[in-house]
Amino acid sequence: MRTALPTPSQSRPQSPSRSASPSSTGLGFTLRRAGVADLPELWRAYWDSEHGPRVKMPDIPVPPIFRHELETGHVWVAEGAAGVIGFTARVTRGDVTYLAELFVRQGHQSTGVGRALLKRVMAGRNRGIRCAMSSRDPRALSLYIQSGMLPRWPSFQLHAASPRLEALPGSDVRVIEADPADSRAMKDLVLWDAHIGGRQRPQDLAYWLRVGGHPLWLTRRGKTVGYAFMNTRREGRGGAGLAILGPIGSATLKDSAACVGAACRWAWAHGDELYLAVPGPHPALRPLLAAGFQITDLETFVSSSDRPFADPRRYITSGGPEGSSLY
What we know:
Layout: E1 23-24, E2 30-33, H1 39-51, H2 64-72, E3 74-80, E4 83-93, E5 96-104, H3 113-121, E6 129-134, H4 138-146, E7 150-160, E8 174-177, H5 183-197, H6 202-210, E9 214-220, E10 223-234, E11 241-250, H7 256-268, E12 273-279, H8 285-290, E13 294-303, E14 315-316
Parallel strand pairs: 5-6, 11-12
Antiparallel strand pairs: 1-2, 2-3, 3-4, 4-5, 6-13, 7-12, 7-13, 8-9, 9-10, 10-11, 11-14
């Protein structure tokens, strides 16, 4: 993902009793603020939206990103007679509001649920920048465009199981893992991310650390030229270890591809497979594909502003197999 450094959010999880009063839509469902008790239903609604009710959900906990969005953003659910049929989440950092989630169960899609959720979660966000990462679903893209968030560039979800690391740029860039216990280093990381990523978001960097993220400095001949984050996780019992890169930012455009290449080399030593999401204008896209990375999905960054808050040639968002989350 701007002023004096804010402290990481210490807000308590929102319980259902503290949620805003439900509002009827007149379409057979109501909208209300989500609480902690809703988290399992959000996970089920997401899975149904992406895979349908016939595909068995994996036996894994609710993704922690949902709780983080609940604690530091605004999460709304659409509730029908049978329970939660859709949900949305937005996070606001500085003057940038990012639509982090918008999912509707397959049996309720194209019935006005998504439109009602988007209108509700974005209510009052007329100032500043509103943005999202749209899936390839033309209905989603149409909805965002009609709400004033226009397509700005494509974002490629990339995956590699056996990359040709020697083909990547940045062999002269050294990767140094920062110490999360070093408060000065973490403050510097927040400043770098704010400068390159375009908004102050210490609460998001704190979240990546809580879930086991590795903060990285990228240096050349003793000078810092960029920063990165890498998270790891294992897919199921005995599954592949995933190394998920992002965000990655470079101080200058000439160092941009080299920073990404160096981060990929470092990450490969910590996982069996690599994932990252690369904007179309980023100079690392072509060498990554030449090195054996494959495109697994294509998203579209949409925004209410034609002036990007982060340069897509120097900044790579946080991503993963499920797509982009906190941007």
